UniProtKB/TrEMBL annotation:
Keyword field contains Metal-binding: yes
Identification of the protein by name: Methylmalonyl-CoA epimerase
Domain VOC: 21-151
Matching SUPFAM superfamilies: Glyoxalase/Bleomycin resistance protein/Dihydroxybiphenyl dioxygenase
Amino acid sequence: MPSPDESRRATHLTTGLRVLRVDHVGLAVPDLDTAVAYWTDTFGMTCVHTETNPDQGVREAMLRAGDGETMLQLIAPLGPDSTIARFLDTRGPGLQQLAYTVADVVAAADTLRARGVRLLYDEPRTGTGGSLINFVHPKDAGGVLVELVQPPAPDRT
C-alpha cells in the first residue's frame, strides 16, 4: 500500500499537467516598435501590454486580435547576448514559441519530468506581467519551444 506522500505524488503527476488553453504564439523580431506598428496597422491587432524583461534579455509586447484570448507575443532582444538575439542570428525573425496556460507551472513541470520530458529551468522564472514560466526543451517537443505559463494570481487589493 502506498504511503500518503506517494499517493499525493501519484495524484499530482496524473493531474499536474492541466493545459487550460493556448496562451500565446511568440514571434522573434529584431525591432519591437516596428513589429508592433506592422501587426497593429496591417492586421488591426491591439497592443495590450509591453514590458522590458531584463532577466530574459528582451523587450516584449502582447497583441490581441478582436476579443480572443490567445495573444501574439512579439519578442525583441535587449542586446546581442540575449537568447532572442541568438535566435534571430541563426534563424531570422519568425515563429519562436508556442505557449500554453497551465493551472500550476510547478505541477506541470513535475508531471512532464516524470514522463521523461526535459525543461529548460529547474525552477519557474518570472515571465510577462508577473506570470510564472518554464519551457519544454525543443528536442522533446518535435522541434517546438513550448512555454508553460501560469498567470499571476489576481490582485486582491
